[in-house]
Design goal:
The chain has 323 residues and is an all-alpha fold.
């Protein structure tokens, strides 16, 4: 199988793993709130992300204990950049997830796949074509329908707004990973630095909102919560980002953006049946989502825009990364 085709397949598997994090992360935060109802939402959002990536970094280091001794400056720089962009994006996404539906959050996140070619156009000092502008208009319309925007007040809800801001950080993450100066870096070492950076920048937020040190162990208070955290750590953090960091350099950023738009498909599928399975185990009220009209129409507009933009990608890089 050609490297590009195989890379796209691996990135699709990455989005499937990310899709699990939407209903899974929402259920885990709801369960934690029943344990510490007086805490602010920022505490649960930052703690969940910091714990997931802190544990993922520990596992990755155990499998590669000489990683820091072999670390190159380029790998350190790339990992920090990915961690800052990804960490802030996921914090906003996780916090917004508490105020919107999982499938809505998953679809709104795909706004990055249209932001990427726009940023590239600005970076090259070339105005976007009418084709690109048409795709942007489709996405704006899709976001308005999906988020049920109130045209009288012109306001988005907290969950939708935070998700959209987080999407800007995800756009920077995609573009940072594409940079040719980082080609040839070791995926494992870069990912280790990325995970540690995410945990480091979110830990102060958790500490600021914690009343006691024991609050940081809230996700381990019951066996179902601990198992769900382990699943999110292994699948959505460790597996997914190793795959992303390994295979995205084999495709251009615009192509990667359209591949990532399959994430809400998996997120929606999981949200249609997973909440009812998790709710009784976690002792929470979390009903399965339904394919409502605003979800179908808004999601369709965003998906169409992503498909159209992928039909006219920017020129791929001339230098391919080593196998």
């Amino acid at each position: 199988m050609p490297t590009r085709r195989f890379a796209i397949l691996m990135l699709v598997l990455t989005t499937a793993a990310w899709g699990l994090s939407f209903p899974g992360g929402k259920a885990l935060q709801d369960a934690a709130k029943t344990q510490l109802p007086e805490h602010a939402q920022w505490f649960f959002s930052s703690l969940m992300i910091a714990t997931r990536f802190g544990l993922a970094a520990l596992l990755l280091w155990l499998f590669h204990p000489r990683a820091f001794a072999q670390m190159r400056a380029s790998e350190l720089r790339q990992g920090i950049g990915l961690g800052v962009c990804g960490g802030l994006g996921m914090l906003l996404q996780a916090d917004g997830l508490a105020f919107t539906e999982a499938s809505t959050s998953a679809f709104l996140t795909q706004f990055a796949s249209v932001l990427v070619p726009i940023v590239i156009a600005l970076r090259t000092r070339r105005l976007p074509s009418l084709f690109v502008m048409f795709c942007v208009a489709l996405v704006v319309a899709g976001v308005a329908v999906l988020a049920q925007l109130d045209w009288h007040t012109l306001r988005l809800g907290r969950g939708e707004l935070e998700t959209l801001i987080g999407t800007a950080f995800f756009t920077c993450q995609i573009l940072w990973l594409e940079r040719s100066v980082f080609r040839g870096n070791h995926t494992g070492r870069v990912t280790l630095v990325m995970f540690l950076t995410i945990a480091a920048i979110l830990a102060p937020i958790t500490i600021a909102h914690a009343d006691h040190a024991a609050d940081a162990l809230v996700f381990f208070r019951t066996a179902p919560m601990a198992l769900l955290l382990a699943a999110l750590t292994l699948v959505c953090s460790l597996f997914a980002f190793l795959m992303m960091n390994r295979w995205q350099p084999f495709v251009d950023a615009t192509t990667a953006g359209i591949v990532y738009c399959t994430e809400p498909i998996f997120g929606t599928i999981f949200a249609l049946f997973l909440p009812a399975l998790l709710a009784p185990l976690l002792g929470i009220t979390y009903a399965n989502e339904e394919a409502t009209r605003h979800l179908l129409i808004g999601g369709a507009l965003i998906t169409v825009a992503n498909i159209l933009i992928s039909l006219k990608p920017v020129a791929p890089p001339t230098e391919l990364p080593p196998p």
